[in-house]
Known about the structure:
This protein is of the alpha+beta class. The chain folds into two domains: 3-80, no CATH class; 99-268, no CATH class. The chain has eleven helices and seven strands. A four-stranded mixed sheet has the order 1-2-3-4, with helices on one face. A three-stranded antiparallel sheet has the order 5-6-7, with no helix packed on it. β2 and β3 (34-39) form a beta hairpin.
Amino acid sequence: xxxxxxxxxxxxxxxxxxxxxxxxxxxxxxxxxxxxxxxxxxxxxxxxxxxxxxxxxxxxxxxxxxxxxxxxxxxxxxxxxxxxxxxxxxxxxxxxxxxxxxxxxxxxxxxxxxxxxxxxxxxxxxxxxxxxxxxxxxxxxxxxxxxxxxxxxxxxxxxxxxxxxxxxxxxxxxxxxxxxxxxxxxxxxxxxxxxxxxxxxxxxxxxxxxxxxxxxxxxxxxxxxxxxxxxxxxxxxxxxxxxxxxxxxxxxxxxxxxxxxxxxxxxxxxxxxxxxx
Length: 277
């Protein structure tokens, strides 16, 4: 776990269960600060407590959760953190990275993500229902507006576009939030931390507690392990492997985030390849 999670455990007083899945429990305290108890399948993240388990027991939303500085107790599991390994979620600065290669490989990976925001971005065919197609179209227009605002350095248009994305779309983490997360990774990688923080700040009031917590971490340059693997990748094979892992996260969350990353990277990186679709 990270030092942020360690502080949460120390300070949280009244903990509630947001939801429970086979590989993740999402918990919030009295200030709506969020952490996730996850299996090793999910892996390290800025808000995660990673357990060496293949599956978590079911935890009802009414379950009692009690925390101390070194324990988290529920009726079905007691977790002791005294020997926990601390992990730094801060994204490393890219060193000698070829952004055009990442764009090229990313577009290829996203061609298999037809029912995500990659579909309108890359003009892919889709099997989504008409309502979902309309949602994706609306979000893609806001994503394009955000990208143009970044290019034009138009802060007012950027905030307007972010507010049109935050909290919008389907999924546990709404698709618009996922796109914004990937956008922020691209900005942090391109050394635009002020723009990244501005997007996160504009999104926070408009989305769910879990998404808000993730975007807040992103504004501070803190991301899950697969993003670290992508930025540190030293070969095409490593880039491809990291992107595949990102794409497979959730139903479409990973693909939506990867779309935001590639779309903004392509628009803002010094020499991106302008590939046809």
